[in-house]
Write a structure and sequence with these properties.
- By secondary structure, this protein is of the alpha/beta class.
- It has two domains: 32 residues; 138 residues, Glutaredoxin (3-Layer(aba) Sandwich), CATH 3.40.30.
- A five-stranded mixed sheet has the order 5-4-3-6-7. A two-stranded antiparallel sheet has the order 1-2.
- The chain is globular, with a radius of gyration of 19 Å.
Length: 175
């Protein structure tokens, strides 16, 4: 009986210790996230590397996919080609706007980065994290789908193909 109880306690301890890192990582990411699905997206303005100006509040009536990234970030480099092909190229003629915000990046880094990855949607430098700080304090990539009403319909941190499929479906532009 004591052996069974000891074994049960050991298994419970092992399970708790294995589950802890993931939940503590999720808690840390949650602490750095300043937005929630259903809320109005924070308003911002910026100028793309092409010189075009953008103001989020002037994009109401359109679905906006917002990517917060950095050129040195591996998961960002994996996600952005999906954004290009599966969102921008597929839906830009249907009222979709894609804006990618380069956290701590200037146009001098973003131009060759866009060319290397074949990105054709607007990239906006955010060298001082002014836009990024409206959405989060840490962790990239971050992907948002902002509905035509200006509310956040979907948000994710990191890149996961399954979550990306959810973002595409949430954009609601159909195939």
């Amino acid at each position: 009986m004591n052996f069974q109880r000891l074994l049960l306690l050991a298994v419970a301890f092992l399970a708790a210790s294995l589950a802890s890192p993931a939940s503590s990582e999720e808690e840390e990411v949650a602490k750095t996230t300043l937005t929630k699905a259903g809320n109005l997206a924070p308003a911002f303005t910026g100028t793309a590397i092409t010189g075009e100006s953008f103001a989020l509040d002037q994009l109401k009536g359109k679905v906006v996919v917002l990517s917060l990234f950095a050129t040195w970030c591996g998961p960002c480099n994996a996600e952005l080609p999906h954004v290009e092909k599966e969102l921008w190229q597929a839906f830009r003629g249907r009222g979709l706007v894609v804006l990618a915000i380069g956290r701590e990046e200037g146009a001098d880094k973003l131009r060759p980065f866009a060319a290397k990855l074949g990105l054709t949607f607007p990239l906006l430098p955010d060298q001082e994290r002014k836009i990024f700080r409206l959405f989060a304090t840490n962790y990239i990539p971050r992907l948002y789908v902002i509905g035509a009403d200006g509310r956040i319909k979907f948000q994710s941190v990191g890149f996961d193909e399954g979550e990306f499929r959810t973002a595409v479906a949430t954009a609601g532009l159909g195939r």
